[in-house]
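job 3f2a | input accepted
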Amino acid sequence: MNKKQKKMLTRILIAAVMLIGLHFIPVTGILQLALYLAAYLVIGYDILRKAVIGIGNRRVFDENFLMSIATLGAFILAIITKSGDYVEGIAVMLFYQIGELFQSYAVGKSRRNISNLMDIRPDYANIEIDGVLTQVDPDEVDVGSTILVQPGEKIPLDGIVVAGSGSLDTSALTGESIPRDVAVGDEVISGCINMQSVLKIRTTKAFSESTVSKILDLVENASSRKSKSEAFISRFAKVYTPAVCISAVLLAVLPPVFRLLIGMPGDWSVWLYRALTFLVVSCPCALVISIPLSFFAGIGGASREGILVKGSNYLEALAQTKYVVFDKTGTLTKGAFEVTGIHHNQLSDAQLIEYAALAECASSHPISKSLQAAYGKAIDRSRVSDIEEISGHGITATVDGHKVAAGNDKLMAKLGIPCASCHSVGTIIHIAIDGQYAGHIVISDVLKDNSQKAISALKKSGIRKTIMLTGDMHRVAQQVADALGIDEAHSELLPGDKVSMLERVLDQKKEQEMVAFVGDGINDAPVLTRADIGIAMGAMGSDAAIEAADVVLMDDDPMQIAKAIRISKKCIGIVKQNTVFALIIKFGCLALSMFGIANMWFAIFADVGVMILAVLNAIRALNVRKL
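job 3f2a | predicted structure (627 res):
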């Protein structure tokens, strides 16, 4: 509880004690009025001040104005009728302030959950100057500088590890509790915590462009983008509040006048009391507070899980998503080539891989790197000579005195060596040793571990159709689509073609349905922008994709897509529950107060009670861990 909340709690307790004490003190007349007014001002002076400021700023019709008029009216009514019953006006303000305190606490709880994410901002960076470790502001570190990160410290800027190895705690960014191992040559992002030995990192981005800065900017600005539901509540309040004020005046005046016209007593005090009760009931706190709080809590809960939503409008749109369109490479697949098969091998698998890796040792091609990774040992280049790369065919080299050829069908045909065909999908590397066919190696981009589960989870979440767009060959695309259970696959597409395909999907959907596109590469930025909802996969994705996206997933797990949709649906469900519940109770109580069935005590309990229930329901949006 912060200082402001503690101060409010103190005022509530003082007012309550004064109210109870005055009940037992036998005073009457002016002294009684003065004592009750003192108790009223203790609990309500800030509401009166806000009402006066609102009138001065031409924002008359708000909850402060309604509460001030209703409670002061109760005092005036007690004076006119000489009943001496001033308790009602104080009690109404007291319970209203209890509701406000509760709401403040709930909002604070939601803000603290988002504030935990703010802790990822590093306070300093360590730079070695003349052999002395100096702490400087991350903003002052130039790109290309070498920084040191000690165990327990946050990585202040994005960069590449140039010395040291260890594990990083990425939970603040991704929501994932499993540490990530890093070594020399690995990319690291700001906001992670170094858990083990000292790391030397060469920075690749300025602090303003680093991952942690982008995340903080996204979260801090999320509340500025309002959803349709929030916009509706704002418009509703602007019309509703003046309408109920006018209705209260008419309720206080018209029935007594009509009764007088037909020869009956006017009963002005009765109808004035009903009008004041009507004002108390009409206060739209539950709606005005709980709807924005629901979205705020939903965005906060998602952020804690490593899902950054740029605004409540995108959270609302995500809940209406019926089509999810995927890029393939780096989104559903790992985006890194691996050896996935060895066929027709005349040697052992290890020997064939060894010959291929040594023959390809001079190449920086991804295929060559995947062979070297499969070999898993340091390359001894002294074993290799006479390397010759034949463009579009492959490589020949002498390895340990043996003539080795590694390449495609064209290379084998060029050398006159019969080779076995392969029906596996991927890049086929045929190997020949001393003119004899030795087998072939299949290299392909492998699926991410959770891709199949992610597609299944999306369909369970109500997604009507999943579609994959890729620049790969048709055979490769279709195999991936079949393996994952994707409904449609479109292959051999250029970036512009992807936009055209997305346009076709957008034309097929119904008006209230949304189309989401998920991608990670720089060539995905145009499609991310064009989609109803753009989802950037992974913090290590391109800056262009993250800037263009509406939702950013901080890790590369495709299961997070389904989780983001479930979070959004839970949040929107809570918004609808609060809206319907608050309106039904509100209009029901207004009707009861008009006919004199509900008194002011009932009115305040109904108003504060509905607000508390709505706020309690709203903060459920924070609890997304098990979705």
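job 3f2a | The first helix runs from residue 3 to 24.
job 3f2a | closed
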